[in-house]
Design brief:
The complex is a heterodimer of chains A (about 180) and B (about 550). Chain A has about 180 residues and is α/β, with parallel strands linked by helices. Chain A is built from five helices and seven strands, in the order αβββαβαβαββα. Chain A has helices at about 5-30, 75-90, 110-115, 130-135, 165-175; strands spanning about 50, 55, 65-70, 100-105, 125, 145, 155-160. Chain A is elongated. Chain B has about 550 residues and is of the alpha+beta class. Helix content of chain B is about 30%, strand content about 30%. Chain B has a five-stranded antiparallel sheet. A four-stranded antiparallel sheet of chain B has the order 4-23-10-9, with no helix packed on it. Classes of the chains: A alpha/beta (about 180), B alpha+beta (about 550). The interface between A and B is large, with 46 and 51 residues.
């Protein structure tokens, strides 16, 4: 093989290795991004029903500060923080704040009866068969995601939150 | 600097050639040494050996080095060993990062922090594999191409030095015609199944050249193997998930467009006659089977609110080691749960005072009606709990979203009851009734009313849950193909040897040189046998010209 052809073969092989190897290494580097992280984007969800049966998608709230809270009636700290979330929502809803409280795949009666006991004005969404929960890779309840206007997660809180904590997160959100 | 690389036979060799490509005369450094020649790759220059290397050449020659390859393999081996110290993260269905510290203390914490808990998916481990792959490809190409060329255009008449400096040599004075001797020796060599190329007074006899390609075929197999392993990173090429499906339910398989329906689950247990003494009286499953249907979703897939549009593509009775298979997707029987859970009960309302009973009526656990009319009485459902508990504030609430301890709170209206009715708590499971003190909660009303389920025919249970392991491994056939090719290469290289015999007769003087890539003992006795058959005195040992013993 003369110099020129040899050089081209070498180049083709090296480029092939770089492409294939780059892809293999690249996928391992970005594979861990499946779990939502602070600074990353929250997993999208489409057409999730609220209590009245209206459908909501996360994309509907693009450009607005959003709080996504996962809760269940069987989880005492989830229940305990509900009134605090409501108070903070009332305080900041005029500034565009959206609260999507996603129930952890409980049945109709449980959710409806639970909500009768509370006066909640923010949006309650119904997960089914833990589909959204799984997308968000939840490990414990409650877990709350704070999403800025730029669509990036500013904070993730696990465990119950007090008024002060929620407000601190919200103020950070509104700055985005 | 230009090196004069022209051989005395007139052949122009590339730089760093150690044996003239044409006549085999030792060149350069090799000419200054004594004893047997370095015959690797027939003395041709490797492709990476260049006079003025640029960056491309340097990268190429880095990967073409066998030393580098050995170092890479050793590092990879050490890394792979580290990954086996503690279980890897992917061994857990629900992974909890604190597990390592809880189980192995500080060492576990460090192990997790270093990322060794995901060794085999880590970028650096994959980088090592990619580098080994690059080294395999380049090392092989760098050697196989020149070797192929060298073996493909071999000169029959070799330089005297080339022959006398082989590890197997022979020289003798012959009586008679040079050409006649050449023909005679050629005939003897052919009897030994050598392929002989003869000239007037020189010949080259060769056999089993293909065994030289063994290592390269082995490498091709390894490269396919490696590519297949790396291909598992391609989305959809590998999956290992678990789904639990209750009888009668249809569940989406995570991260796919498939849904699986459990039509029926059956488990047979061993009878006591079939069990050894110590296991008698225990439930030992003998055979469990899920009658399953696989659907592909065509719209509203993965929606929480809209019904998915499904099309059935396959049905199969899934047994252990007999999975449902569809387009590379395999559903294996993994586990089951036959713990009974209530679906519905058909109780009667008993008026304890009069002994009168009303009903039975169907009370569904998951979807009860808001109202039931029973004789003169009306039951209004206030609320229902699936897994009843009393929380820290003393309020009734749920412990989970599973129907482990259902409880109904009714408002009973009817004759002899106050305006607006009275509340009545009902726990359908008898042990819950005791545990939560139904009669105490209901107070006086407990002496007037009760719900009774007359027999088990009035109890409906939810179906069993079958746990299926969902696997996709599209890389596996390629792993096997790669391994098979690699084996073919190994067999070629191990069980045959490339043997060559050169000889020339110059005015009655015979000079012979022979070379093999392994089993020198065999070569010497074969050459000696040929010489003896031609009437020449030769002892296998006397042909030995020294060199490394193999």
């Amino acid at each position: 093989m003369k110099g020129r052809t040899r050089k081209i073969t070498q180049l083709v092989i090296l480029i092939g290795i770089v492409l294939l190897g780059g892809y293999a290494v690249g996928t391992t580097l970005f594979a861990s991004d499946e779990k939502p992280k602070v600074g990353g984007r929250p997993p999208a969800f489409e057409n999730v029903a609220d209590i009245e049966g209206n459908l909501h998608s996360l994309a509907d709230y693009a450009g607005r500060p959003v709080i996504i809270n996962f809760w269940g009636t069987f989880c005492p700290p989830c229940v305990a923080e509900m009134p605090a979330i409501e108070r903070q929502y009332q305080k900041y809803k005029d500034q565009g704040l959206v609260v999507l409280a996603i129930n952890l795949s409980e049945d109709d009666i449980t959710v409806r009866d639970f909500l009768k006991r509370f006066d909640l004005s923010f949006t309650i969404l119904r997960d089914k068969n833990r589909m959204i929960e799984r997308k968000y890779a939840l490990r414990s309840y409650p877990t709350t995601f704070f999403i800025g206007r730029d669509g990036r997660i500013t904070d993730i809180d696990t465990g119950g939150m007090s008024d002060e904590e929620i407000e601190r997160y919200i103020l950070k959100l509104l700055e985005t | 600097m230009f090196e004069n690389t022209k051989c005395e036979c007139g052949h122009q060799n590339p730089p760093d050639t150690t044996l003239c490509e044409s006549c085999g005369k030792p060149l350069g450094g090799e000419a200054l040494t004594e004893g047997p020649l370095e015959m690797r790759y027939d003395g041709v220059a490797r492709r990476s050996q260049k006079a003025n290397p640029n960056l491309l050449d340097r990268i190429w020659s880095f990967f073409s080095s066998v030393k580098v390859a050995v170092v890479l393999i050793v590092i990879t081996l050490i890394a792979a060993t580290l990954g086996t110290i503690y279980p890897q993260e992917n061994a857990f269905i629900n992974f909890d990062p604190s597990w390592y510290e809880e189980n192995y203390g500080l060492a576990g914490k460090i192990y997790y922090k270093l990322g060794l808990s995901r060794t085999y998916e880590s970028w650096w481990f994959i980088t090592l594999l990619v580098m080994i792959g690059a080294s395999l490809v380049i090392c092989s190409l760098d050697r196989v191409v020149p070797l192929y060329k060298a073996l493909n255009k071999q000169q029959v008449r070799k330089h005297i030095q080339f022959l006398t400096r082989q590890r197997v040599t022979y020289a003798a004075e012959l009586e008679g015609d040079d050409a006649e001797w050449t023909r005679k020796l050629a005939a003897e060599l052919r009897k030994k199944r050598f392929r002989v190329t003869a000239e007037e007074s020189a010949l080259l006899a060769e056999k089993h050249r293909f065994s030289r390609w063994g290592p390269y075929i082995n490498h091709v197999g390894l490269i396919i193997f490696l590519l297949a392993v790396l291909a598992r990173a391609i989305p959809g090429w590998q999956m290992d998930e678990y789904v639990g499906v209750r009888e009668g339910e249809t569940v989406q398989i995570p991260e796919t467009n498939y849904y699986v329906k459990n039509l029926d689950f059956e488990v047979d247990y061993y009878t006591d006659d079939e069990l050894p003494e110590r296991l008698k009286g225990t439930l030992r499953p003998k055979r469990f089977v899920t009658k399953a249907e696989l659907y592909v979703c065509e719209a509203n897939c993965g929606s929480t609110a809209l019904e998915p549009v499904l099309r059935k593509v396959k049905e199969h009775d899934i047994l252990v080691n007999d999975p449902l298979e569809y387009k590379g997707l395999k559903l294996f029987q993994f586990d089951y749960d036959t713990t009974p859970q209530l679906k519905a009960i058909h109780p009667v309302l008993v008026d304890l005072k009069s002994g009168e009973t009303y009903g039975p009526f169907e009370l569904s656990i998951m979807e009860p009606e808001p109202e039931y009319e029973l004789g003169p009485y009306r039951l209004k459902l206030i609320t229902r709990f699936l897994d009843f508990t009393v929380n820290a504030n003393g309020e009734p609430s749920n412990l989970s979203s599973q129907p482990n301890a259902p409880a109904f709170l009714f408002l009973i209206e009817g004759p002899d009851l106050p305006e607006g009715g009275e509340t009545f708590f009902y726990f359908p499971i008898p042990t819950d009734r005791e545990r939560f003190g139904q009669d105490v909660i209901n107070g006086e009303l407990a002496e007037r009313f009760d719900f009774r389920v007359t027999d088990m025919a009035h109890v409906e249970f939810l179906g069993d849950i079958s746990y299926l392991n969902v696997r996709v491994d599209r890389a596996l056939p390629f792993v096997f193909i790669g391994a098979f090719i690699s084996l073919i290469g190994l067999v070629m290289g191990f069980y045959w040897q490339h043997r060559r015999v050169w000889l020339r007769i110059d005015g009655g003087r015979l000079t012979l040189g022979a070379h093999t890539n392994k089993n020198w003992y065999g070569l010497r006795s074969e050459v000696a046998a040929v010489l003896r058959a031609a009437g020449l005195e030769a002892d296998p040992k006397s042909l030995d010209n020294g060199g490394k013993k193999r």
